[in-house]
Automatic annotation (TrEMBL):
Name of the protein: RhoGAP-domain-containing protein
Compositionally biased spans, kind Basic residues: 1-12
Keyword Coiled coil recorded: yes
Organism in which the protein naturally occurs: Neocallimastix californiae
GO function terms (MF aspect): GTPase activator activity
């Protein structure tokens, strides 16, 4: 951002007759400028003619606010410009009375001899940064490094706090769960000194867990402080960076305007110089030939290529001298205006630079240095605070586990356990309240099977077994199968059409037969699918009576029952059958009475079930005389059919007169 003087390349000086060689001057490809050493003296005489007086008479000086002498030894515009430039450059460094020597810095960028005064050292660093172009960016990068360091510390401490908090909570939860389990199952847990030591053991671990939670809270506080520090540092860095870039842009814009003014000034000065040289050349052409021999020392005109535009303008003008003077005046005025504008812009730019280098830049750098120092110190302080909390947590754990007095330390708590005394206390109550051993010989107790299993191993067969034998075996008066089947039919089948006439499933009947053959007392007739079950129950009951070895009416009385049924007189027939029924053995009599009573209840509902006395007799006659039929199987089929007719008649007479044959009360 520094400005330097523009260096003008000096041209070769010419003298003598060369100034009058017009053709050679026109063919010259390079433009030569007159230097200070080659310019003519203030007054030049050629013979008796004073050239200076002639020029003044031909070209009177124009009125201008700026007086410029083309033949003077020094160019006043250039000299004044350069003097102003030197003065402004000298003033641009006026803000620093003590110039910083960067050579006093060592390789690490630190002073060789560190000053004890921090403020003086900081000011020295600020001045040193002002001397280098990237000083602003250097300290910005340093503040950015501090921000990144804060982020790393925040990330680490956050995870560290989570670890400590989870560790502390896990220990507390473990202790609480262990205490609850120990309290629930006192019988299964050891008591005495061990229980006391164990409770103290858990309390000690609870203290450690609480210490860890407190440590996690302190880490959280440090993390919050660092987060606040990070936000403040980044905000300060952003604001100061924007301000610094704004000041830099102001200086850059001002220097750009100065460069434009300088270019305009140099261009207008060159145009003015060209006009002066053109006028001088024209003067020499018209007045210099008269005394050419007297101009041997004249060496003030440099060779200049005359432009085609200038030649045309000179030819068109009636008086070239007046035209050249007018061109020179215009060029001089433009050069003066450009000179004034350049000097004003130079003053403004130097003022902006002085303000930037002397005030704004040091202030921005100082603020950045303060933000950096604050971040450094706060980060260091918070890390020290974390270290202090960490040390306290470790010391607290250490004093909890092993206190200085060694009274309640972890090792002392475990050493207080008295296993021998605990064991004695444990067995004391059982010895006092316990039951003594029975030392007598152990007797044999036979295993009692379930009724279902026992019935399988020791079945109580009823099918094909003599009625008196099975009733005597089971200590019953009525067969169990008759009782259960009759009760089931009376409960579910009195309204069933064709009861006892419809046949059931043979497989289901055989299954029921197997169950009754094992133990009739254990059979339970379910109420599922009643219609099918009814037919199966009636079928198994009829099967039971058919398979009796000796029929219910007995083989001995069979012929007499048949003969009695053939009697025409109903009264006499009833009396004879009644007498035969009374002659039946007791098991047969009681069973017949129970069965007839059941069938009477069935026929009583014959309007619904369509099973009257006649229909029931047809079914039950052959069934109750079944054994007798088998004994007479050698007879003809006609005889067996006739007997079946009278068998049904016997059952019909008994069923029709059941209240006369059997005691109604029974």
């Amino acid at each position: 951002m520094s400005l330097k003087k523009s260096k003008h390349k000096k041209t070769k000086s010419i003298s003598g007759p060369e100034i009058f060689d017009i053709e050679k001057e026109e063919t010259e490809q390079q433009t030569h400028r007159r230097t200070r050493s080659s310019r003519a003296p203030t007054t030049t005489s050629i013979g008796s003619i004073n050239l200076q007086q002639v020029k003044q008479s031909l070209y009177p000086p124009a009125s201008s606010s700026v007086t410029l002498n083309p033949n003077s030894t020094s160019n006043s515009v250039s000299d004044s410009l350069y003097s102003a430039t030197n003065k402004s450059e000298d003033n641009s460094l006026a803000y620093s009375s003590n110039t910083i020597d960067l050579n006093v810095l060592n390789d690490d960028g630190c002073p060789v001899e560190k000053k004890t005064n921090n403020s003086a050292e900081n000011e020295w660093i600020i001045q040193a940064l002002c001397e280098i172009e990237n000083g602003f960016q250097v300290i910005l990068d340093r503040v950015k490094q501090n921000s990144n360091s804060c982020k790393d510390a925040i990330t680490f401490l956050k995870k560290r706090a989570i670890i400590e908090e989870e560790y502390g909570k896990a220990i507390l939860k473990l202790c609480q769960t262990t205490l609850e389990n120990s309290g629930k199952d006192k019988i299964e847990s050891k008591q005495g000194t061990y229980n006391e030591s164990w409770n103290q053991f858990l309390e000690l671990h609870e203290k450690i867990g609480n210490n860890r939670i407190k440590f996690a809270e302190s880490i959280g506080n440090v993390t919050e402080n660092l987060f606040t520090l990070l936000k403040n540092t980044e905000r300060s860095r952003k604001q100061l960076k924007e301000a610094g870039l704004k000041y830099q842009k102001t200086v850059s814009d001002s220097e750009a305007l100065l460069e434009k003014a300088k270019i305009k000034y140099e261009t207008s000065s060159e145009a003015w110089e060209e006009a002066i040289l053109e006028k001088e050349r024209h003067f020499v052409e018209h007045f210099g030939n008269q005394n050419l021999q007297q101009m041997s020392g004249f060496n003030t005109i440099t060779k200049k290529k005359v432009s085609l535009f200038s030649k045309i303008m000179l030819i068109q003008q009636k008086n070239p001298n007046i035209f050249l003077q007018k061109v020179e005046d215009e060029a001089r005025n433009k050069a003066a205006q450009a000179n004034e504008a350049f000097k004003q812009q130079l003053v403004s730019t130097n003022a902006t630079r002085r303000e930037f280098f002397g005030k704004n830049l040091p202030r921005i750098l100082r603020s950045l240095k303060e933000a950096n120092d604050e971040c450094d110190n706060s980060l260091q302080y918070n890390l020290e605070k974390y270290s202090y909390s960490y040390e306290n947590a470790l010391m607290s754990d250490a004093t909890t586990i092993s206190p200085l007095n060694e009274a309640q330390g972890l090792r002392k708590i475990i050493q207080k356990i008295d296993n021998a005394n605990d064991f004695v206390e444990y067995i004391r109550k059982p010895l006092i309240k316990g039951t003594k051993f029975e030392k007598n010989d152990i007797t044999f107790n036979e295993y009692k099977m379930q009724p279902e299993t026992y019935a399988i191993i020791h079945p109580k067969t009823i099918f094909g077994i003599n009625l008196a034998e099975q009733l005597n075996r089971d200590n019953l008066e009525i067969p169990e199968i008759l009782v259960k089947c009759a009760n089931y039919i009376e409960k579910y089948g009195l309204n069933t059409v064709g009861i006892y006439r419809l046949s059931g499933s043979n497989s289901a009947i055989q299954k029921l037969r197997t169950l009754f053959d094992r133990d009739a007392d254990q059979v339970i007739l379910t109420d599922e699918n009643v219609q099918d079950t009814l037919n199966n129950v009636t079928g198994v009951l009829k099967l039971y009576f058919r398979e009796l070895p000796n029929s219910l009416f007995t083989q001995e009385l069979y012929s007499e029952f048949i003969e009695a049924s053939k009697t025409e007189d109903e009264r006499k027939r009833l009396v004879e059958i009644h007498e035969l029924v009374n002659r039946l053995p007791d098991p047969n009599y009681l069973t017949l009475r129970y069965l007839i009573a059941h069938l009477d209840r069935v026929q009583a509902n014959q309007k619904v079930n369509k099973m009257g006395v006649s229909n029931l007799s047809i079914i039950w006659g052959p069934t109750l005389f079944g054994g007798c039929n088998m004994s007479k199987s050698d007879g003809s089929e006609a005889d067996q059919f006739i007997d079946m007719k009278y068998q049904c008649k016997v059952v019909e007479v008994i069923l029709s007169n059941c209240y006369a044959i059997f005691d109604p009360d029974s």
